[in-house]
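Posting for a labmate who doesn't have an account.
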Amino acid sequence: MKVTTSLSADRQALAITMGDPCGIGPEIIVKSFAQDPQATRGAFVVGDVGVLRRAVHALHGASRWPVIELENAAEALSVPPRCIPVLQVIPAMSVLPWGQVCAEAGKAAGDCVFWAVRAALKADVSAVVTAPLHKEALSAAGPPYDRYPGHTELLQAEAADFIQKPVAEVPVRMMLANQELRTVLVSIHVSLRQAIEAVTLPNVMETIGITHEALRATLGRSPRIAVAGLNPHAGEGGLFGREEIEIISPAVALARAQGVNVQGPIAPDTVFMRARRTSAHEGEFDVVIAMYHDQGLIPVKYMGVEHGVNVTLGLPLVRTSPDHGTAFDIAGQGIADASSMLEAIRMARALVAHRA
């Protein structure tokens, strides 16, 4: 069934991309609408009606949660409760097997992200929340999808194209956050060898600057930033590497001279404990800048992926996502936890409010 109600142009819906249709994305989206109708009010799914109906059937039975096909994004604001609003932005899909890498699924997931980010850049939607896509499936889809290691790089390229600038002039960073810890990464989806090579004075400086500006807007004050070292014990005075002496320390000093509240380099095996916020410990820092992907993500994910949210900093739009992947091993079983997706939706709404 379709909704065709006309709405005021000054109101905007929140777009949720369906993710890889062979993974848990559609399931956790449906669960999010069911578990928190208030958070998902005015949100809609960018994807395929059939994929969402299959997810509804796997979880609740199709009769309990009707999928409503929208004519446009604005109609999501008037959808009745206990419905899943979907905007069909891709050709109707065939039924694909759960839990398998599939080029058709990768292309569909990629097309949904392309549509959503372009809509957000044109201010047709308030924000974008992306369900997990599978990087191997995205690559299998071929050009242009195989150019992007993940969501972040795709979003960066689209933003650069929209504002007609080279990609290098639209620097973005990945921040992973939960209720206890925030981390921002100097490099994202590259090999460990490439990640070490990416620890340069300009990259570290740029990461500090992006983090400072983004969190200052969110917190309403200058954030307390900690910068992790690259090497064990932050190099131990040069015994275990000189990156701290020659790159990270100078970057921190330059940032401090510009008025940024930043400390480092701090030993990476202790800095996350010092920054963690608990009922018994306020946390010495608001965010930790990590030198590479796993250094920053392991501490956050160890605390529980069900509460983690991925936020892309530096974009001219709000984008969040759950802190986990497609979970092919449990896809279609109806047991996937939607907590991280719900946190991503709530975070997106909070960031939109801060921007306003």
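Reply:
Got it, the structure tokens are right above this. The first helix runs from residue 25 to 35.
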